[in-house]
C-alpha cells in the first residue's frame, strides 16, 4: 500500500516480526496485518482510509488490544491509535470529561479522582484498556451495570466515517455542515427509526433486549431511544467495534466516585440461595454484587490470604461479594444495614458482615479477581484460556447458572468456572480449550452451539453481555435477534460502510463457521512464559512498549519462533529482528509481573534468551567481573575519569554522539573509594554501599559520593556504622542477573550474604539492621536473605528509624520524585513519599511514568529506551523544579540526562535538610 506517502516512515510498520506482534489481541484469534499504521491525528486517520479505499484493503482500528472476541485483529490494515489521541480535558466542575480514544481508562479516573468523579464504564481491564475500546465495545464492568455504560453516559463525540467525513456532535457548525453533506445518510437513519418505532413488536423486542446487558450486534436501542438522526448516529457508534467509523473524541458525563465503601463476602450453602438473595439486593443501593460458583471458589481457596471457610464449603455452595458505597459514613452505615436486612432470611455458611477496612475489602476482592488467573495458571501448555460472557434475566439466574454448569460438564470442561456481575444477570464462564486438532475444535463448536441454545432459546438472554460481538459471536447474531432486527443491522452497516472497508467479519458474518477459523496457536515456547494468556495487562507498565515490543509482544513473537522451529521451518526472519527489538531494548525491570494475571515476569524470558545468545568472549568477561569485582569497579572508575578528560577536550555532546549515547551530557564523576568510618558510640547498623554508588559519584566535581552521604546521615542520627568486610570486592550480582548469567549472579549474592551475616551478627543470637542504598540491589538481597536476615532499602530505614531521630528543616522548593520499579515491586513507595514530604512541602510526581528505562546498564547500550520511557516527564516538571530524587544511582543518571534536572538519591536531600545549620538549597 501507499501509506508511506501518507504517514511518516516511523509510523508505517511492514517488517514481519512487528506485524505479527502488534497484530495480537487478547482473544483466541490470530490474523497478521499486511501493514500496521500508527495514527496520531484525524488527518492521519483520513489518510489511512483514503489509501485503503484506493487499494481496496480493509481497515481495523486498535486501541489497547484487550479485546476478547477478536474485534481488534485483521489481515488488512491495522490502524494503531497513537499517543496523539491520548488527550484528556476536564471542564470546571468535572461533570463531564473530553477524551481522546488513546487515553487509558484508569488514567482518566486517576485525573478525575481529585474531583470525586469517575467515568461510568468500569471494565476489569480499566488499568490497561483505552477509551477507544471502551466506547467501541460499550464495555461495562462490575459496578456500572446498564445505567452508566458508554451508551448511557456519552454526551458528544467526534467521529470519522469510512468516506473520511468528520462529524463533531458538540459543534453546531459541524452538525449543520454534516446535515448538508450527508443528508441521505441522516434521512435513512430517520426512516429506520420511524419504521422501528412504528413496529410495536420490534420496538418492544429491542427495549426488552436492553433491560439486561447486551453487546450482541449493533446498538439498535438508538433507533427507539432517539429521533434526531445525529443522536442516533452517535449512539450507534457505541458498541460498533470499529465497523461503522472511528471515534476520535468522546465526551462522557462523569459519575460520582463515592469515598466511603464497604464489602462483604457471603457464603451460601447452595447457588440457588445466593441467586435468590441477589433479587433482594437489586432493590437496594448496592454498587456491586459478584456471584462465584463453587468451582471458582475452589480455584483460589488454597492461595495465601483466602478465607478459611472456602476450603470447607459443600459442592453446591456459592458466594456473593457485595459492595456498598456512599458519600458519607452515616449514609454508608444505612446501606450496610439495609443489605444485611435483605441477607438475613437466607441461609448462609457464616453470618454476613461488612467491613470498611481497605485491607479486608481488598482480600475479599482478591477472591473475585483471582478466579480467571487461576484457570490460566493451571491450564495445560498449548491450550487457550477462553472467557465468555452471557447475560440472563436476573429472575432466571439460578436455573441458568446450573444449566450452564451442566453444559460445561457435558462437553468435557470440568475445570470451567462461573462468576459474574449478578445484579445484571451477567455471567462469565472460563475454560481451557485445545485448538491444535480438528476433534478439539469440533468439541468447542458443539459446546458453543449448546450455549447458544441455552442462552437464546431457553432464557432469551444475551450471547454477549459486555465483551462485544467480535468474530466469535458474529455467526450467531441473527439467531439471538431474529430476522427483522438482523435486517436493520445489515442496513446500518451498508449505510455507513458501503464498501465493507471497516473491520469486515466483525459483528456481522454470513459464514456459520467463522468463529472456528483463524484460531490462535498457543505452542509451547519456554516454561517461564507458557502460561501467558496474551491479555496485554502488562503493556502500560513496560518502558519499551510503543518503542519496540511489549512483554505480551515478546512472548507472542517467541511463541511464533518456537512454532516455526517445531515445524522445521526457517526462523531466520524472526531471529534477525528479535535481538534488537525483543532483547536489547528490554529493561528487564519485572514490572510486567505486577500487572500480569498469572504472575509472569517476561524479564525472566529475556534474561534466559540473553544468556543463550551470549558470545564466548562476553561469557568470559562476565565470569572475570564476577570473580574480580574489585578490579572491575576500579576499572570502571578509571573509565569515568578518562571519559571526563576526553569530554573536557572534545565536549560532552561530541562524546555522546561518538559513543552512541553511552556517554551522558551530565555524566557523574568517579566515586571516591569507600573508607571505613571511625569507630564511635551509637546503635550499630550495617551499611552496604552498593556498587553503582561506589562507581558513579556525584555529577559535580568535589561533591561527596553517595556512601559518604549515607554514612554521614546515619552517624548524625546516632548510629554506629559498620561495613561488611571487603566491601570493595562485593556485589549482589544484579548486573549479571540482568544479562542472564544466573549462576555467576547467584554466587555473588551468596558471597555478599555471608559478608552481611557476619557484619550484622550481634553476638547474642540476633542481628543488627542492614541498610543498602540502591533499591534494585536491596530487593534482590531481601529475596536472597529472606528468613535469615532483614535487609532494608535506605528510604525504608530512613522512614522507620531516621525521621524520628533527626531534626529536619522542611524546604519549600519543588522536588521531583521518581519511584523506580524496584520500589514499586517492594510496595515501599509510600514510605519514600513520606520521607520526601518530610524534607519538602512541594513534591512533584509526574504521572504515567513507571520504569525509567535505564535498566541497570541498558541505558548506556540502548539509550533510546531511556529516552522513550521518560519522554513525557520534562513537560510535567514545572520550571521552578530544578532537582529530583530517586533510589537507584543508574536511574538517577538517566533521569538527569533526559530531564535536564539533577536527580540524586533521597539520602542527599535528607542529609541537607537535617544539618544543624540547614538552609534550603537553591538551583
Can you put this structure into words, describing what you see?
The protein is an alpha/beta fold and 923 residues long. The chain has five domains: 89-254, Uridine Diphospho-n-acetylenolpyruvylglucosamine Reductase, domain 3 (2-Layer Sandwich); 260-464, FAD-linked oxidases, C-terminal domain (Vanillyl-alcohol Oxidase, Chain A, domain 3, 3-Layer(aba) Sandwich); 539-613, no CATH class; 630-802, no CATH class; 815-913. It is 42% helix and 13% strand. The chain has a six-stranded antiparallel sheet, with helices on both faces.
Alpha-carbon distance between the two ends: 53 Å
CATH domain class of the largest domain = Alpha Beta
Domains (count): 5
The appropriate CATH architecture of the largest domain is: 3-Layer(aba) Sandwich
The CATH topology of the largest domain is Vanillyl-alcohol Oxidase, Chain A, domain 3
Poorly predicted segments: none
Strand order of the largest sheet: 12-14-13-16-17-15
| Helix count, DSSP H or I runs of 4 or more residues | 39
> Any idea what the shape is?
globular
Helix share, percent: 40-55%
CATH superfamily of the largest domain: FAD-linked oxidases, C-terminal domain
Task: Kindly provide the radius of gyration, computed on alpha-carbon positions and rounded to a whole number of angstroms.
Answer: 30 Å
Structural class: alpha/beta
The major beta sheet can be summarized as: 6 strands, antiparallel
Strand percentage, roughly?
Answer: 5-15%
Strand segment count: 25
